[in-house]
Task: structure prediction
Amino acid sequence: MNTRWKSLPSGVVPDVADAEPLSGGAVNDVWRLTLTDGRAYVLKGSVDAPPDLFPLEAAGLRALQERAGIRTPQVFEVSAHHVLMEALHPRPDTDEFWEAAGRTFATLHTVRGDRFGWDTDGWLGLLPQENGWADDGHEFFAEHRIRRYLREPKVRRALEPADLAGLERICERLPQLVPTSPCVLNHGDLWRANIVADPAGEPVFLDPAVCWMWAESDLSMTYCCDPPPDRFFHAYEEISPLPDGWRDRMPLLHLREHLSVLAHFGTYGDTVAKVRDVVRTFS
Result:
């Protein structure tokens, strides 16, 4: 059994009877811990994490719950190396569940902010998510979701000068490519794996990278990365209708994720090809 969870500073570790590894992505380790008294928790951690990564994750979960009433895991402990949360359930892949998830996500996007950004920078993976305040969403997306990654060494090694030039043209053209819309509360990293269920089968959102930004930019992660069925998006639009052509803009707004992958891992799979497709289409 992998026993790295024993190195984390959780107060429940001495009482663990069983530890089951869960999928935690490429950054952290995640375990479902069952205690000797039968209680279960999820322990997520890394001894190599930046010291504010887990505290900021816990703050993001709290922001979603307090500002929008969104169901997120209850947090019991948090430190520089771990977060201990309630154990939840796998999502049921039913039409009813995905409709409920779509309506919940839309409710999140009805919460409006005054400016684009957040009161602190956060993390997307192991790289800082820049959240500096801006009054203009196009400026914010250009500077903090595209150009921010063009400074990363692995991105510059993975992309050719023509690719970088094309991304700069996209930054300049954003006001013509994306309609002006208000800043709303963003989960920031909502793909299928970050949606689970509570004991009643209702959606619960995990692993946020919160900020105030466009609804479409938040939706692009859900739409482009292992998307849920169309019922999710139809239910979303019942609560929060989207501007015409929103599906066509999803690959453009998903650039942030492609560039983040390159910044973390360098040339990875078909990520460079996907960036070039976006450049060809939108620049």
Observations:
- The chain has a mean pLDDT of 95.
- The CA atoms of residues 19 and 33 lie 5 Å apart.
- The first strand starts at residue 16 and ends at 22.
- DSSP finds ten helices and eleven strands in the chain.
